[in-house]
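Input (structure):
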């Protein structure tokens, strides 16, 4: 039921629908551009270092440490005190080894980005 003069809820809904259609029609359609774009193709990745004890110690410390903490302190599946201490020490040792592995000085041609 609309009010006399056409200013009721029905007219408001029609106005809202009209404005919504205007907004939607002005959005981007998401169609690809006509020109051919260059795509980045990464080079082959290097394998994990097999004989690098320093790398594997970092990996072990940063994965086994939090896992031991979770199993001992979080889920109570292991005795809390010795395993939580071992997990904490393992995490700290892994982090320290990671920091020690970083280069002390960067060359001028290294750039400002990380090596991935």
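Output (sequence):
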């Amino acid at each position: 039921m609309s009010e006399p003069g056409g200013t009721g809820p029905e007219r408001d809904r029609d106005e809202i629908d009209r404005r919504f259609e205007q907004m939607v029609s002005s959005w981007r359609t998401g169609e690809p551009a006509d020109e051919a774009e260059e795509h980045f193709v990464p080079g082959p990745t290097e394998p994990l270092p097999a004989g690098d004890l320093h790398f594997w110690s970092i990996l072990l410390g940063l994965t086994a440490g939090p896992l031991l903490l979770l199993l001992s302190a979080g889920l109570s599946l292991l005795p809390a005190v010795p395993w939580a201490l071992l997990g904490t020490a393992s995490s700290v040792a892994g982090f320290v080894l990671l920091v020690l592995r970083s280069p002390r000085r960067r060359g001028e041609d290294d750039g400002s980005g990380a090596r991935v």
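Notes: The mean pLDDT is 80. The chain is about 55% helix and 0% strand.
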